[in-house]
Write a structure and sequence with these properties.
alpha+beta; 252 residues; binds 2-acetamido-2-deoxy-beta-D-glucopyranose; O-acetyltransferase activity; globular; TBL_C; 26% helix; disordered N terminus
């Protein structure tokens, strides 16, 4: 938990990535109690499991991609295993076609009690959405909580050295450990927004990927231990793929 707190600022930055797509015909219903909408055509894209699929390599090679920052370029930083590149996210009740673009903007918060600050900020943002968004023209997405893996007890491996040496995801669809407290804050804040907002509920699928962090293949090399960010190629590609599918499906 202490490690979670010390890294939570970074995480709040990630959490505050808010996606707004303009000029779009949105068809979610306006019911205030059902405005956390992440099902399309009866399929929850965030519920599922990771399946190893060697025939489905990442769509780019980080080694040769000029846009990937050093701390995420695990292969370049010497990570010797490759298995983690070959897991595909399989939603329980549908397929997830591959994606080809993303669109994000970002926002940063100040240093105070982080959960309190976070909930206040979300309240401010929600009020802005309710005042300014026309749901017939604009789709609003909120990116959920990206979790870390510092405590092996969370995934029933108490002797694990944080996320170091993890080479496989947690099997199945259920993470045995606790969810980050920020998840409850997000769900509470979004439930108060009257306009339709789609939560990109990436927490569970990311919790399953204890193997997806840079660990000692991040910016500090062997002297660091990064179990917060994600190797690229990696888990964030799946977040983007899901976002892409939600957008496409809404357009149909
Ligand atoms: C990425 O490219 C490098 C350099 O061309 C190559 O050595 C490496 O095997 C490639 N990695 C993957 C996962 O294809
Ligand atoms: C990991 O979690 C377990 C169970 O919650 C706890 O007893 C332990 O102190 C934690 N370890 C660290 C290093 O925080």
């Amino acid at each position: 938990m202490a490690l979670w707190v010390s890294s939570s600022f970074e995480k709040l930055v990630i959490v505050m990535i808010v996606l707004v797509l303009v000029h779009h015909h949105h068809l979610a219903n306006g019911n205030a109690n059902e405005n956390i909408e992440n099902r399309v055509s009866g399929c929850d894209l965030f519920q599922g499991s990771w399946v190893e699929d060697i025939s489905n390599p990442p769509q780019y090679n980080a080694t040769t991609c000029p846009f990937i920052e050093k701390e995420f370029n695990c292969q370049n930083n010497g990570r010797p295993d490759h298995n983690y590149l070959y897991y595909s996210w399989h939603p329980t009740s549908c397929d997830l076609p591959r994606w080809d673009f993303i669109q994000v903007g970002s926002k940063v918060m100040k240093d105070m009690d982080r959960m309190v600050a976070f909930e206040m900020a979300l309240g401010t943002w929600g009020a802005w959405v309710d005042t300014n968004i026309d749901p017939t023209k604009t789709m609003v997405f909120f990116q959920g909580i990206s979790p870390n893996h510092y405590n092996g007890s969370d995934w029933n491996e108490p002797n694990a050295k944080q996320c170091q040496g993890q080479m496989t995801p947690v099997l199945g669809s259920i993470y045995p450990g606790q969810y980050p407290p920020a998840v409850a804050v997000v769900k509470r804040a979004l439930s108060k927004i009257k306009k339709p907002v789609t939560l990109l509920d990436i927490t569970t699928l990311s919790l399953l990927r204890k193997d997806g962090h840079p660990s000692i293949y991040g910016i500090g090399g062997a002297s660091g231990m990064d179990c917060t960010h994600w190797c690229i190629a990696g888990v964030p590609d799946t977040w983007n793929q899901i976002l892409y599918n939600l957008i496409i499906w809404h357009k149909l």
